[in-house]
Amino acid sequence: MPIERRLTIWTVLTLAFTSGFIIMSIELLGGRILAPYFGSSIYVWGSIITVFMVALSFGYLIGGHLSTRAPRLRKYGLFFVAAAITAVPTILFGDAMMDWVFLRFEDPRYGSLLAAVLLFFIPTAILGMIAPYSVRLLVEESHHSGRVAGGLYFISTLGSALGTLLTSFYFVLLFEINEILVTMAIALICCFLIALFVDREVESEV
Amino acid sequence: MKLLLAVILLLGSTASYSDVVVHREKSLYRNIVVSEKAGKRCLIFSVKRQERNQTCIYIDDPTRIVFPYVRMTFAGLLVNPEPTRGLMIGMGGGTISTVLTSIYPDLTMDLVEVDQAVVNVATEYFGFRKTDQIDVHVADGRVFTRRALLKKEQYDLIILDAFTGEYIPEHLMTVEFLENIKNLLTPDGVLIANTFWGSALYHHESVTYSTVFGPLFSLKMPGTGNRVIVASRAELPDRKTLMANAIMLKPNFERYKIDLRKYVPNMDRDPDWKTDRRPLTDQFAPANLLRGR
Predict the structure, then answer these.
(1) Which ipTM was obtained for this model?
(2) Which CATH superfamily is domain A3-200 in?
(3) pLDDT tens profile B251-281
(4) Which residues of B touch A42 (CB under 8 A)?
(5) Residues near B35 by Cβ (< 8 Å), separated by ≥ 6?
């Protein structure tokens, strides 16, 4: 296998792992972020999980579509930077948004649902686009596609598991929520830079 | 065979001493068990690992209070001996509100409990009665207090009793939450919080309360793992005033066999916690992880 091909594969796997990690880390922090306004009852978790699932499903759909148009690592990296940018309002204005929702929605079920949409839908949907696009970057022949997709789900879901575990066991004990979120955003930007760099390397080899 | 016999004997012996379960249900939040043993009926939230009685009553004398911490709670009244409007978060068997509203006929109370099943069990098995004086709200304490602030509600007595030894709702133990509580208090109102000592959380929790309220009374009594925090927006009264109030309240508490005077010497104003610990905030609230340390 040519070196640039191998480089692409490792980059995509690493980045897919990271995005899996970050999705679940943010989802878990979501419960913490909403609790001061909507409590920590089961419906708050219901809201968060619903919003993440819907956002991811639309992300998959859109990411799949985008992957049909001249897929490249450079474009792949844009998902990461876009997710980082769209997470900024959540970090900076999350409280203001939840205040707004709290004033308008008496029932904490719908309040938490709307707040979860405002805070998490867009960055999560963008992170969801990464999965199908990763498949496209890795698949070379159609009869391998199932194996490639399986390997990718394996890596990114392991990332999710680790993100869940580290966040709930250790990060919340060591850092503030916003410190964790900012770190995630920086990690996403690093992913973007890696994608750019590898894209250039790969293209210059060709 | 020997082993089998031993097991049978063991089962037999535990059965004869163990509680008679009169009610068991799984609520949205926990397993609730009501059991009876030696003349007492108890509400138990967690039965698997450790038996934690949330509340107990004597079956033939419900006015007698079983737990020291329940009696300790009333020590908060020494700071404000004539409350008129109370808020209680976490209701347990409802004993505290029942006692308070019978002692103070002019006191009205909002009772906030997250779990409808707890309200039902309190009503069915612990003699809790909703009266003209008591309003029960099934809601999250944080959501309720935020709403109450918007409505500009004021209370001169707030009791936080949402913490068990097993689990702490982390969003109810942060600086921001206590700021909410403080803003709900009248200038001379009193906050009473039933908490525990004996883990790393004790220090963080104490620092969190004193960050918001400044000096606190921290009440511990020998032989209990409970600690009652008493705080106020106003300056805390001196021991003489506390004692005067205890004497004044004595007749009211007589039928419950509570003498508040014995708490006065234990109401410590000087921190016995590590004051350099980090306060808990909405951003940093690993209360349950700290509790395990």
Answers:
(1) 0.86
(2) MFS general substrate transporter like domains (1.20.1250.20)
(3) 999 988 899 999 999 999 999 999 999 999 9
(4) 28-29
(5) B19, B20, B21, B22, B41, B42, B44
